[in-house]
Amino acid sequence: QVQLVESGGGLVQAGGSLRLSCAASGRTFSNYAMGWFRQAPGKEREFVAAISWSGGSTPYADSVKGRFIISRDNAKNTAYLQMNSLNPEDTAVYYCAAPRTSRSAFFAPVNKDEYAYWGQGTQVTVSS
User: Fold this and answer.
1) pLDDT tens string 65-109
2) Rounded to an integer, what distance in angstroms lies between the CA atom of residue 127 and that of residue 81?
């Protein structure tokens, strides 16, 4: 049974930084891509970033490109999302996710329908 547990959320002022972590268990972490999504109140869950199992592909949403960095440590079964230059529009619950299947070394899906496993989410609030 795959389990994903996010941590690292909190309250930060605009311009600040946070690093989210996603600890995975239940299968061989290094064989699978990972993704981060977010959902603000009244809005649909949206793609933020993804990383292939090799780390060789890291697509980002346009809204976070240049500010957020996704990474993974396969030895620790953990994925990270470093968030810099945060602004109030980044306020949301952030979720990590993993797809059901393992594909190529550059498979890093941006569509949430590709993901079968989700964490419980961690709240990020950015004050102005």
Assistant:
1) 999 999 999 999 999 999 999 999 999 999 999 999 988 999 999
2) 19
